[in-house]
Write a structure and sequence with these properties.
The complex is a heterodimer of chains A (about 210) and B (about 475). Chain A is an alpha/beta fold and about 210 residues long. In chain A, about 60% of the residues lie in helices and about 10% in strands. The longest helix of chain A is centred in the first third of the chain and has 21 residues, at about 35-55. Chain B is globular, with a radius of gyration of 24 Å. The chains are: A alpha/beta (about 210), B alpha/beta (about 475). Chains A and B meet through helix 6 and helix 8 of A and loops of B. Bound molecules: cobalamin.
């Protein structure tokens, strides 16, 4: 089996140790870092995405795969050109559960999924006010904000917080994605934001918009 | 004998292992409690408290003292006085309650939307008429119909006005707790009356692992101060915020509840408490929270056994419900599976009547059918006596059946017992011809008929006008203070 194919396989299996070893082996055998990335890693993650979307693999398996891939990328980084490394700079996402709501499980899941694909996540926690969101967006110059609400009563504060963020002048565009058990596409449309039904779709949305 | 069928899911070694691990957790790791007043009171009572980090640890002596203080017998009273619930249940049966907190209502036409206050009234009219539903909860209204900061207060007003049965209250915000207590007190003529005959009890929820947010601590504290019964809950999600194994999830939920019970009994020795582990699991493929996973059902039984048999504390969990969106076959398989398992556990209360979609939706038709299912489950728990009269051996030994004129239909034994078999109200017990003549009605059709009969009849209960006026006064104060 081609070494690049082996790396692909080990990422799918979530084998971090082997992935790292194989990456090192390939580099010492003269493989180009970008080639490894393009031929093994990106296709492996695409495959994981397909398996997840088609309900053919479990979340922990995918998380192990992404962990293996991140470890492999760390090995490749010094061999990538400045230009190529720039592509690897991650997006920063601010996430939090809105004021009046303490539910965190869904939000945490979104964070874990995003971090697993290399996104920098600033998790503000639960019960977060508009000001706290705005301060974090400013501080981290973030383009993405994700909000969770699990209570119908918290949707009132979600609406308010979204308005506060939209009314604020950051100097760049901020994309807001909302989710949570009571939040619907119709509600998202009404308050003029993006909606993701679950953590997987949320992660995919970020990746898509980032592209 | 009544209440005889109960099966154990743990052996003695497992039960004592679980108990000792729970106590070790409370002693060695302790809890995180976000409530300064309560922390200092508990420090004075002997708990080891760090006011800075808000961490608290118990001692074995305190745990034992608290467990001893739990009343063996107590009553949850009903506003009407006709449905008081004595614990332990004198018949050995279980009590049942409706689903709490679901934001959506699926009306009889099948439309699903946020619950309106009119639908809350409809709900209580139905629950008043359901003979197998023993107490009620607050359906969740939404910010669309009542002020978002006070949905619990507005819903409670309707409950106090209409419910003939005991009310279990789920608060939404810290500041609302005292108003919910005051409102309940107003409905019975004052706090003293409420303490004597609590027509309400409260939900307080831990946040796994071992954390108590201010609101829930406030509920525990206010209820302890006011002498109002609490049914402390833990809602862990296996694999998300507790171990992925159902047993590990039961362990944490029970420990969290045990901590709440110990705190309540230290603050108010003798306060009626009911341990309420409401376990969930996360589906590792779709990430959604599930209620009806099979292992989680067993874990509920573990938790029931731990409290009821291990500590002689009354215990309560989901007794019905589904992850299905519809009243379809999955729904009925999941809910009867759970109801029957729980009916045969040591549980004192089976909850969740009327719920669909993992506690996010309630349906009046499902409630009417759950009333039927609980009736069957109650009968299952009662079991059957085996003795000379029930096996009817005398007639057989006497060879009565050899007499050509003998028929069991006419036998004295039949005459004594023919009324005993449980006959669900709405089930088809007829032949094909009659069934067709009657319009080929399904169970849901009959539930709909029953719905209309109940809704067209006079309600059996309404709080007196003078008491209602007092309730309204508190509602007004709450509205002024809470609605921003
Ligand atoms: C666990 C739980 C709790 C735990 C939360 C623990 C924690 N650390 O989060 C505790 C016990 C603390 C709790 C408290 C309360 N809860 Co609660 N809780 C639940 C429960 C059972 C599961 C929620 C959950 O975590 N699911 C697991 C995650 C993975 O699923 P999820 O959050 O839906 O997330 C998925 C999607 O929604 C999405 N998603 C979520 N957030 C985001 C964000 C983004 C950006 C994106 C893209 C996607 C996304 O992705 C996830 C899937 O991949 C639900 C019932 C249910 N069926 O959902 C009730 C539920 C949400 N709670 C409810 C209530 C009423 C409360 C309380 C008010 C009650 C009380 N007195 O205790 C308090 C809240 C107090 C407050 N002010 O916030 C009601 C809500 C009703 C309503 N009207 O809105 C529900 C429906 C249950 C019920 N019937 O009572 N709860």
């Amino acid at each position: 089996m081609l070494p690049t194919k082996k790396i692909f396989q080990k990422i799918i299996e979530g084998d971090e140790v082997c992935t790292v070893e194989l990456c090192r082996e390939c580099l010492s055998n003269g493989y180009d870092a970008m080639e490894i990335l393009e031929k093994s890693m990106i296709p492996a993650m695409d495959q994981c995405g397909v398996l997840l979307t088609n309900r053919k693999s479990f979340i922990p398996q995918v998380l192990m795969s992404t962990r293996a891939m991140q470890a492999g990328i760390e090995v490749l980084k010094p061999y990538l050109s400045q230009q190529e490394n720039k592509l690897m700079i991650s997006e920063t996402v601010i996430i939090g559960t809105v004021m009046g709501d303490v539910h965190t499980i869904g939000k945490n899941l979104v964070s874990i999924m995003l971090e697993s694909v290399g996104t920098t996540v600033i998790d503000l926690g639960a019960n977060i006010s508009g000001k706290e969101f705005i301060d974090a967006i400013t501080k981290y110059q973030a383009r993405f904000v994700m909000m969770s609400a699990m209570l119908t009563s918290a949707m009132v504060s979600m609406r308010k917080i979204v308005k506060e963020i939209k009314d604020h002048e950051f100097g760049w565009d901020v994309v807001i994605i909302i989710g949570g058990v009571m939040v619907t596409l119709a509600f998202a449309k009404e308050i003029g934001v993006e909606y993701a039904e679950n953590a997987i779709i949320g992660m995919e949305k970020i990746l898509k918009i980032h592209d | 004998m009544v209440g005889r069928i109960k099966y154990n899911v743990m052996n003695d070694t497992e039960l004592s292992f679980l108990k000792s691990e729970i106590e070790r957790l409370l002693i060695e790791r302790g809890i995180h409690l976000e409530h300064d007043e309560m922390l200092s009171d508990l420090a004075e009572l002997g708990c080891q408290v760090d006011m800075e980090t808000k961490d608290l640890k118990f001692t074995k002596e305190l745990i034992d003292k608290a467990v001893k203080a739990i009343p063996e017998k107590f009553t949850l009273y009903s506003p009407s006085g006709t449905r008081d619930l004595d614990f332990p249940n004198p018949d050995g049966g279980f009590y049942s309650r409706t689903n709490t907190g679901a934001p959506n209502y699926r009306d009889i036409k099948g439309n699903t939307h946020y619950t309106t206050l009119e639908e809350v009234e409809e709900w209580y009219k139905l629950t008043n008429a359901m003979e197998n539903i023993d107490f009620v909860t607050l359906p969740s209204t939404s910010g669309e119909y009542v002020p978002g900061d006070a949905v619990d207060v507005y819903t409670l007003e309707k409950a106090l006005k209409h419910s003939a049965k005991h009310i279990w209250i789920q608060p939404y915000e810290s500041d609302n707790v005292q108003y919910l207590i005051d409102m309940s007190a107003a409905a019975v003529g004052g706090l003293e009356e409420l303490q004597k005959k609590p027509i309400v009890s409260f939900i307080a929820c831990s946040v796994p692992c071992m954390t108590y947010k201010h609101m829930d601590a406030e509920i525990l504290y206010r209820c302890a101060k006011s002498g109002i019964p609490v049914q402390p809950c833990s809602l862990p999600t296996a694999g998300a915020n507790t171990p992925v194994t159902a047993q590990g999830t039961a362990f944490i939920a029970c420990a969290e509840i045990m901590a709440m019970i110990v705190m309540l009994e230290l603050l108010h020795p003798g306060l009626p408490v009911i341990a309420t582990p409401l376990l969930f699991s996360m589906d590792m493929m779709t990430t959604y929270t599930l209620q009806s996973n099979t292992e989680i059902t067993i874990a509920r039984l573990i938790a029931m056994e731990l409290f009821e048999n291990g500590y002689n504390i009354r215990a309560h969990s989901y007794g019905t419900g589904t992850d299905s969106m519809e009243m379809d076959a999955q729904n009925f398989i999941e809910r009867t599976n759970l109801t029957d398992s729980m009916a045969m556990s040591a549980a004192s209360i089976l909850g969740g009547a009327g719920q669909l979609e993992t506690a996010k939706t309630i349906s009046p038709l499902q409630l009417i059918i759950d009333n039927e299912i609980f009736g069957i489950a109650q009968r299952l728990r009662r079991g059957l006596d085996v003795n000379i009269e029930t096996i009817d051996s005398e007639e057989i030994f006497a060879c009565l059946d050899k007499d050509p004129t003998f028929s069991y239909l006419m036998s004295p034994h039949t005459n004594r017992h023919f009324m005993e078999p449980h006959r669900p109200d709405m089930f088809n017990r007829d032949g094909a011809v009659n069934w067709e003549t009657d319009g080929c009605k399904s169970l849901t059709d009959k539930a709909l008929e029953k719905f209309h009969i109940i809704m067209n009849a006079e309600d059996t209960y309404e709080l007196s006008a003078d008491k209602m006026a007092e309730v309204k006064k508190v509602l007004k104060l709450a509205n002024e203070a809470l609605v921003k």
